[in-house]
Amino acid sequence: MATNLITEAGYQSLKDELDWLWREERPEITRKVTWAASLGDRSENADYQYNKKRLREIDRRVRYLRKRIEDLRVVPYSPTQEGKVFFGAWVTIVNDDDESKKFRIVGGDEIYDKKDFISIDSPMARACIGKNVGDEVVVRTPTGDAYWEVSEIEYSSVEVAPRFSKP
Questions:
Q1: Of 26, 122, 106, 19, the residue nearest 69 (C-alpha)
Q2: How confident is the model at residue 155, as a pLDDT?
Q3: What is the structure's pLDDT at 159?
Q4: Which helix (H) or strand (E) holds 74?
Q5: How far is Cα of residue 48 from the mean position of the Cα atoms in its chain?
Q6: DSSP helix/strand/coil, 5
Q7: What's the farthest any 2 CA atoms get from each other in the chain?
Q8: What residues does 91 pair with on adjacent strands?
Q9: Euclidean distance between CA atoms 32 and 47, whole angstroms
Q10: Is 98 left (phi over 0), alpha (psi -120 to 50) or beta?
Q11: For residues 130 and 166, what is the distance between their CA atoms, to the nearest angstrom?
């Protein structure tokens, strides 16, 4: 089961998406459906069929967002987190081959379309939680254990995570 945690910026992004869908996108699509329906025969009316389908997709997403936003718990930044890996941290890790990865540990609702965000529920995030700079991180993989070292931990007191952008 997914953890119901989210950063402040992620929470705001979901609220922005819900607001945009409900106040802008849905009324526009509803107008298109009404217009297409007024043309008569709906069985062969592509505008009507497409926009009716889009309206169902919007309604489904709105229902999901309303329920999800209600279930989420926002985890605000706290200066006491500094120095250790916790939720919301930007973590840089390095392995023995000098490969490095930098990622932010966030909630599952925030990782989509963001290559440098990982879910708190992922094996890598779970292995990193509570570590300090210089600590070894062991990640269990199907091919065996992977060893990494935490080289940097950063927190942002003012979040600048990407917010919802209109399609």
A1: 19
A2: 87
A3: 55
A4: strand 73-74
A5: 32
A6: strand
A7: 70
A8: 103, 153
A9: 8
A10: left
A11: 36
The residue whose two tokens read 């062969």 is: 44
Strands 144-154 and 90-94: antiparallel
| CB-CB contact of 153 with 138 (8 Å) | no
Sign of CA dihedral 64, 69, 8, 3: negative
Instruction: Read off the amino acid at residue 150.
Output: V
Q: For position 166, what pLDDT does the model report?
A: 65
Contact assessment for residue 107 and residue 7, using Cβ atoms and an 8 Å cutoff? yes
- Closest-CA residue to 155 (of 99, 101, 80, 97): 80
Question: Which amino acid does the sequence have at 110?
Answer: E
CA distance 44 to 48: 9
Q: Name the nearest CA neighbour of 89 among 109, 72, 103.
A: 103
Q: Which residues pair with 97 in a beta bridge?
A: none
Local mean pLDDT, 10-residue blocks, the chain (167 residues): 85 94 96 89 86 96 96 87 90 92 92 88 93 92 91 74 59
As a whole number of angstroms, the distance between CA 33 and CA 158 comes to 42
